[in-house]
Amino acid sequence: MPIESKTFLTLPINAASAGNNTIIPAIAGMGFKIWKLWLVSAGTVNVTYFDGGNALSGPVSLFLSSQQELKYDGTAYFSTSLGNPFIMNLSAPVQVSGTVYFTRG
């Protein structure tokens, strides 16, 4: 069965601070669905995703030049609640770069 095609909004991921890094800023009354994501890490770091203050994942370990890729399969990987940002928490000050593909609503 073919996977339904979607038109995504995209934002770059460019984070290097330990702690919370806002990837998709909050919009009042709106939530987000994360459909695809890829990251590459410049060092050893644990990445945890959040819906505002609520964890959406456990820590994902990345190492020097390692990548995390969430491929589009027709199901959203993460959803945020209305009015909450999509946050990526880094356990250490390590450069993590990539792209997030999402829809509003």
Strand content: over 45%
Structural class: mainly beta
Number of strands: 10
Roughly how much helix do the residues carry, as a percent range? under 10%
Residue-averaged pLDDT: 95
Give Rg in angstroms: 13 Å
Main beta sheet: strand number and arrangement?
Answer: 5 strands, antiparallel
Shape, principal axes of CA atoms: globular
Terminal CA distance reads 25 Å
Spans where pLDDT lies below 50 across 5 or more residues: none
List the total number of helices: 0
What layout of secondary structure does this protein have?
Layout: E1 9-15, E2 19-24, E3 32-41, E4 45-51, E5 54-55, E6 60-62, E7 67-70, E8 78-79, E9 86-90, E10 96-104
Antiparallel strand pairs: 1-10, 2-9, 3-7, 3-8, 3-10, 4-5, 4-6, 4-9
Compact summary:
0% of the residues lie in helices and 52% in strands. The protein is mostly beta strands. Strand 4 (45-51) and strand 5 (54-55) form a beta hairpin.
Give an overview of the whole structure:
- The chain is mostly beta strands and 105 residues long.
- The protein is 0% helix and 52% strand.
- It has no helices and ten strands.
- The strands form two sheets. Strands 1, 3, 7, 8 and 10 form a five-stranded antiparallel β-sheet that branches. Strands 2, 4, 5, 6 and 9 form a five-stranded antiparallel β-sheet that branches.
- A hairpin with a 2-residue loop joins strand 4 and strand 5 (54-55).
- The chain is globular, with a radius of gyration of 13 Å.
- The mean pLDDT is 95.
